[in-house]
Please model this.
Amino acid sequence: MTITKKIMSLAMASILVLNGCADLDVGNTNAPDQSRALAKPEDVESLIKSTFLSFWQGIHVTGGSFNPGVMADANTSSWGNYGMRELSSEPRAAANNSPAWNYAYALEQPWYYWYGAISAAKDGLASLKAGQEGGKTFLADAAADKRAEVFAKFIMGASNAMVAVYYDKGFYVDGSTDFSKTPELSDYNTLMASAITALKGVISDAEANASVAIPEDWMQIAGLTMGDLAKITHGLIARWTAGVARTAQERGAVNWADVKSHASKGKPFAPVGDGVYWWSRTQYYCGVSPSWGRADYKLIGPADKSGGYTSWLGTAVADRKAFTMTTDDKRLTGALDADGKQTQGLYAKNEYRTRLIASRGTYHQTFYVYNRNRDYAVDAGLQGPMYDLTQSELDLLTAEAELRVGTAAAAVTLINKTRVGNGGLTAATDAKVGASTDQPNALDGSSLWSMLKYEAMLENTLIHPFTGYMNRRGWGDLTKGTPTHLAIPGKELEILLMENYTFGGQADAGKPGTAGRISNKGFRVRGFDIEFEKVTPLIDADLH
Model:
């Protein structure tokens, strides 16, 4: 990386403040404006290529990347770090949207990283167009110009989409956004629709320039072309078209033919970690430490044959305790050793201890830890492939589409690719289709819907941090009171001079609730100063 720190220009509230105080605005001749700061072609290209790292870190590196997993009960942890304990404890409470909350940064960071990526892409695109005035080529050649333009638009579309995934509303920003006017907030559905429209345009432009190479350091993927970027975008559109839904009703109303079409054209991708800036916090911590993101029984329990999971579910939450499962799923356990103990499975293993403090709720505890990312996090020293979009995710999205439109036989084949191929379980059939309200279940005789949900949750956990959360909320399977999205961060609301609000809790599940106590000292203009986060070694002091 040649850029380790970028000053982000997308300060929505600052725009409003400056517009209202124009008479006090004094120009600083020592501070270069955009036209001077981005006058050189190499600076513009460097800025545009850096945007994917901002986008990536907003998903995989921020402290907030842990929270979707614990809110979805895919991972379990009682550690306070990043707000994991507060957002996953039962009974669920409203998300604390106070900027004074100890872990406020975990709710803020994704917002600022994604808007930082959008801002940089927008600035780069504007400078690119300015350098092309009079029909000139600004970068090395016309192909380089087109690559930079399409890549910037890809980042803007993808980052707007992630805001729509995680927050209830946001500012849709693209190359045509006029910051001289007061920006308007859009709800998540409107925001996602605009993002997907933009991304479909990216696909058209990328396919028209399919042979143009994308340098390896733009996405940490060797041999990538614009044609490959089009396929990646297809896959992401499939993910987000299904994943934006907040309720079972909304997910049922998704255009599943569109999901199927885009998934069929999609391409998995996995940036390669460098052990410095390019890394995945969840894949790293859960691969190195057996304490950070253990396997929640709500994720793996549906494969239990002993009756232990059924008993665990039937026990009052406060009295639930860790137990050893009996399962045929080879992803969770291997063959018994000489002492009769379960050995390591492909994705998890029974550690026969919990490591999570009982006083913080034994319902958090589980004997099972993840090991699916140890090749990246441990063996390769954080320098291996970091899978984000997998073929399994695309296949299982397609399987859900098939079930939604009534072609169960086609779904069976796709479900069995992971159920049998990875899990070694008995092949599913279409004898019992079931309904979308069925709970996850891997056992023989379960409905196809139950098997699909189990496969989708297990296969996607510790890959993309938000996938399990998107699935569970869209199916209507989140634990009661879990926020179905976050509010605009409290810090940003202060800047915007807007009333604080939040989501979640028992009384008002899915509706605006109450936030933590807000400091009433007036707003403070805060710049979007984002320093790319370097990986830091895990130490015992981190566990608190």
In short: The chain has three domains: 34-280+479-535, 281-379, 391-462. Residues 34-280+479-535 form one domain. The chain is about 45% helix and 5% strand. The radius of gyration is 23 Å.
